[in-house]
Amino acid sequence: MRRLLALAAAFFVADLVTAQAPPPEPNGNAAAAARQCNICHGKQEFKTVRPDGSVRPLFVDEAAIRDSVHGKWQCTDCHADVDKIPHPAPLAQVNCQRCHFGGNPVGAPERINYEGYVKSVHGRLRLAGNTKAPLCQDCHGTHGIRKHTDPTSRVNKAQVPSTCGRCHVEIYADYQRSTHGQSLLTKGNLDAPSCTDCHGEHSILAPKETASDVSATNIPETCSHCHGSMAFNTKYEIPINPVKTFKHTFHGIANELGSKKVAQCASCHTAHAVLPAADPQSSVNPANIPATCGKSGCHEGANANYARGRFHIDPTNRDSGIIYWVALFFKILTISTLAALLVHILLDLVKKLRHGHAGGHHGE
Ligand code: HEC
Ligand code: HEC
Ligand code: HEC
Ligand code: HEC
Ligand code: HEC
Ligand code: HEC
Ligand code: HEC
Ligand code: HEC
Question: Residues 133, 126: contact at Cβ < 8 Å?
């Protein structure tokens, strides 16, 4: 029985990934074909009233479709199940993957990770019947789909947060208040991350999955795409390389060795409410550090001492004060100890060789 289910599931996946029917050929006569539909759907006031009394508008602006990336396609190329008029309701949801799959013959872009969507947290939930998880059209829109480079596209960098935020409401609210959100949405700074810079777009996985861009052990790498370069940090008056300095700490070393429990960037800075340390709302503002470090499972009972001194310290930088000098002292101490040891070994060797040479005749 389980096998049968797995087989059925595999078939369903294959069906979504590849085309369910051969993709259509554009016949260049989309306008004429749409006229059939426009008899009803071309009227501004065309709508139905649902049993619960709510109104469902059914007007379709054909000009928006002609203006979109799908301008040359007919209504029925997407609404493939409308084969007679009047057509029965309800219709199936549009399956974008009729045309959008690797090796498609109709010219839909190939460089997209369509498979990634099927395996993503969204794709898997959708396949399992969760209608709250997004299909392609929930992120891209329906009749007015545009390239991501178009500022009005729902997947344009500056639009992505509101596109995801329609469902992830609380996270969107945190993000909007954060340095990252303010920078992108208010200042229009395209250097700042939108949701997809940290999560990917089609292959989004839950943080608990190791392969996720935001799993505990991948977070430093994800932040380092931007903060890993000192030139980048300097541009935003961030005085340290937070990634390099993190890697010197106990937390950083344990994280690199695969510890999921030890603090990483988001444990201290949060994932979505990232703010400069000077901001009183910031999780790393000195006033909030005891609470941040004292989170359950971390340093319970953390007190104000935790807020003393700095966290990101580069021991190779003179500006780090006492830490720099202590590090330098230990560096010199280590080198001189090693040098003395080496000299000692050499002298010892010379002595042993001399002895060996002198006693050589007595052996066998
Ligand atoms: C005779 C009028 C008429 C024509 C012509 C017509 N439709 Fe419809 N269409 C309707 C009505 C009425 C509904 C609402 C059905 C409902 O909600 O019960 C509808 C709903 C829809 C829906 C919404 C899907 C759903 O399940 O609610 C789609 C998509 C659609 N039509 C596509 C088309 C396409 C494509 C054409 C042209 C090939 C077309 N229609 C031609 C009357 C028409
Ligand atoms: C690129 C594919 C595509 C094309 C081309 C297309 N549609 Fe749609 N249409 C969609 C999607 C996606 C939805 C959202 C519902 C869904 O997911 O199935 C939708 C929804 C609708 C609805 C439901 C009301 C609404 O606006 O949500 C109607 C009616 C409709 N389409 C009619 C048409 C007509 C008429 C044409 C041609 C003039 C057309 N569509 C062309 C993809 C398409
Ligand atoms: C009938 C085939 C077909 C269907 C169905 C279809 N598309 Fe497309 N789509 C194409 C083709 C072909 C292109 C390339 C258009 C061009 O470059 O002129 C395209 C382009 C796009 C682009 C722009 C990509 C780029 O870089 O140019 C997006 C985004 C897109 N489609 C999303 C969708 C979504 C979302 C759906 C489902 C609602 C969908 N498509 C349904 C054929 C289709
Ligand atoms: C969770 C939201 C989301 C879902 C679901 C999603 N996409 Fe996307 N998609 C995006 C984002 C964001 C981008 C923009 C990537 C970028 O900036 O280059 C994108 C880019 C694209 C592009 C290239 C567009 C361009 O202008 O270059 C195509 C084509 C595309 N997606 C098709 C699909 C198809 C087909 C599906 C369903 C199998 C799908 N997407 C599901 C968010 C989504
Ligand atoms: C149509 C609604 C919808 C849209 C749009 C949407 N998501 Fe989701 N997303 C969901 C649902 C539902 C879940 C599963 C329930 C949950 O964990 O929140 C989910 C799960 C997730 C998860 C995994 C959460 C976990 O802990 O398991 C991440 C990460 C995620 N979405 C990110 C995004 C990003 C980034 C975007 C935009 C590119 C986006 N989502 C767009 C509905 C949506
Ligand atoms: C600077 C990088 C970054 C940006 C930008 C970002 N996220 Fe996240 N997101 C993360 C990290 C890191 C985690 C994992 C948090 C953890 O494990 O504590 C996460 C977790 C999540 C989760 C699942 C866990 C939860 O808290 O429910 C969802 C859903 C999510 N993000 C959605 C979004 C959405 C939507 C946006 C845009 C409005 C966004 N993220 C922007 C880094 C980011
Ligand atoms: C796509 C690039 C990008 C990614 C990825 C990114 N950031 Fe940022 N970050 C920025 C930019 C740009 C700023 C400065 C915004 C401004 O001041 O306008 C910033 C600012 C900050 C600040 C505030 C610094 C200050 O003093 O203003 C912190 C803290 C921060 N980021 C932490 C993180 C963490 C933690 C991650 C990973 C979870 C991360 N960032 C991922 C681009 C990025
Ligand atoms: C153990 C907690 C902790 C961890 C882990 C951590 N940080 Fe920080 N971070 C801080 C504190 C506290 C500050 C305030 C300045 C300081 O103490 O050096 C800070 C400052 C920053 C700043 C400058 C912001 C400002 O306003 O001064 C950036 C950017 C930053 N961290 C990014 C990161 C990144 C990226 C990572 C992961 C590679 C990371 N942090 C890991 C606690 C942490």
Answer: yes
Q: Is 269 exposed, middle or buried (0-12, 13-18, 19+ CB in 10 A)?
A: buried
> Could you tell me which residues come within 8 angstroms of residue 57 by beta carbon, excluding any fewer than 6 positions away?
46, 47
Residues of the chain with pLDDT under 70: 1-34, 318-325, 358-364
Ligand 2: residues within 6 Å at CB? 34, 37, 41, 58, 60, 62, 65, 70, 73, 75, 77-79, 93-94, 137, 142-143
Q: Pocket of ligand 6, candidates 195, 205, 275, 295: which has the most ligand atoms within 8 Å of its Cβ, to mutate?
A: 195
Place of tokens 């009047």: 86
Instruction: Give the pLDDT score at 13.
Output: 37
- The structure tokens 């999560």 sit at 199
| 337-to-190, 326, 327, 330, 348 alpha-carbon distances in Å | 51, 16, 15, 10, 16
